[in-house]
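Quick start: load a record and inspect it. Here is Purine nucleoside phosphorylase:
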Amino acid sequence: MLDNIESTARYIKNRIGDFEPEVGIILGTGLGGLVKDIVVEKQLMYSNIPDFPISTLEFHSGKLIFGTLGGVKVVAMQGRLHYYEGYNMQQITFPVRVMKYLGIKTLYVSNASGSLNPDFKKGDLMVIADHINLQPQNPLIGRNYEELGPRFPDMSQPYQRTLIDKALSIAAANNITCHKGVYVAVTGPNLETKAEYTYLRIIGGDAVGMSTVPEVIVANHMGIPVFAISVLTDEGFTDVLEPVSLEEIIRVAEEAEPKLTLILKNLIAGN
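Running the structure step on this input writes:
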């Protein structure tokens, strides 16, 4: 794996020249519009990058975007990878490891998720303060490379507290409804049953989704500070549970995206 990470990073560096990103960004379902605010210098299709997994979802673009956002050099994944696509955890998190080798110092992650907390409504944002991992594999299983990180990485602070506080302040200053909560990662791709929503709420979840946690584990393993934020696209409240479609999830995510983009832009720029 280490050889693949190094060779992929070399390939990318040969194509982006002396551009060295300070920040990595992973854009979730329906949230690729942040790219419009990036002054793009280079774009690479996943399919053209050696050993890079390709998103199989028609609504995920599959591009690495290099440019500046708020005066900061960034690399953005427009299209993320999921366990339910059939990839293993090492493949899903491979791009994070490559971004570290490209020079990123901080990772920003966004996703679309379902609300479990009755106080958190559809269309709101939630900054992730902690998570519960219910996915069946861990990206750190197998041989550990000390060059990447320790065998048993600490996860007492998986999300950077100073960035959480700054994001909540930015949201408040712009009259954006933004909560702080616990994200539960499940496998998917099916949405949850009524009983499962009840269970996830009982164990401490405020939102549920099918991504993010593997990338966060690997970022912590490599010593990369992480900020993560969810757009709450549906409500798993068991007393009023209604069917949800992918089209509705994407619609809500796209409507909320300007609020998320504002927070990320200001946070990355240090405002």
